[in-house]
Amino acid sequence: MADRTGIIAHRGYNGWFPENTYRAFEEALKLEVAGVECDVNLTKDGEVVVIHDQTVDRTSDGTGSVGDMTLEELRTLNFGTDEDPQRILLLDELVDLIESYPGKQLLIETKHPSPFGARLEESVAEVLRNRHLDADPRFSLISFNPEAIARFRNLLPSLRSFLLLEPDAGLPDSLEGASGFGPSIRQARLDAAFFADVDSQSYVWTVNLPKDMEWCLNNGIELMATDLPELALDVVRSAS
Fold it and tell me: What are the residue boundaries of the GP-PDE domain, all occurrences included (predicted)?
């Protein structure tokens, strides 16, 4: 149980800026948050890019599957707005940004099912290893997929990981080697006694209502993900 709940900006400052873009992350990191969360997928040519969906349809002005496009092709798309165009980010570029804000955390979520399977976790590990960040406590790995968590444990054993939980899948049998659980706010509240008894860290998503933010603060949640980090900061200040 944490003494203080850290605020994690979900996909950057997702409530006001296009998700998983440089702008969304930069605006979040300017705030007094603990860090940011991102999603990653692989391109056709094996680059680790920051995007939630398996396709670009919802978040860009293009269409198609991320895994069927090269980085060069993805770079032609706009993931921002007409007034503030944003190109797709490499995980490497996001790490550059994180390192320019000392002390900020980055939680990296791998999305499954992925057409690349284990290559996704292997590629994330390669990015962090190449930068000598494979034991840096600022970086955490998260996934709904227990097999992905197991791969992270083998590839990056020094980094913290959270097993995300599907809201309607029931309570887990074990941590599957993760450092902690990542329930939704609804599940965290409904099954508060279960999670309070588990000797592990906690990452709760996606917390956008003040009453739920207050609950996280009062129940020792280590990290809470939110689309509205400024609102969360206001709640934290009011509770102090």
Answer: 5-236
Contact by Cβ (8 Å): 79, 106: no
CA–CA separation, 113 and 145 (whole Å)? 8
pLDDT at 173: 87
Residue 6 DSSP code? E
pLDDT band at residue 1 under the 50/70/90 scheme: low
C-alpha distances out from residue 132 to 190, 193, 222, Å? 40, 39, 26
What was the pLDDT predicted at 47?
99
The vertex-60 CA angle with 56 and 63, nearest 5°, equals 45
- State residue 167's pLDDT score: 86
Q: How many whole angstroms separate alpha carbon 51 and alpha carbon 61?
A: 14
The arithmetic mean of pLDDT across residues 143-167, rounded, is 97
Q: Are 173 and 191 in contact (CB under 8 A)?
A: no
Domains along the chain with CATH numbers:
6-239 (3.20.20.190)
Query: DSSP of 183-239, one letter per residue?
Result: -BHHHHHHTHHHHHHS-SEEEEB---SHHHHHHHHHTT-SEEEES-HHHHHHHHHHH
pLDDT at position 171 over 90: no
What is the structure's pLDDT at 168? Answer: 84
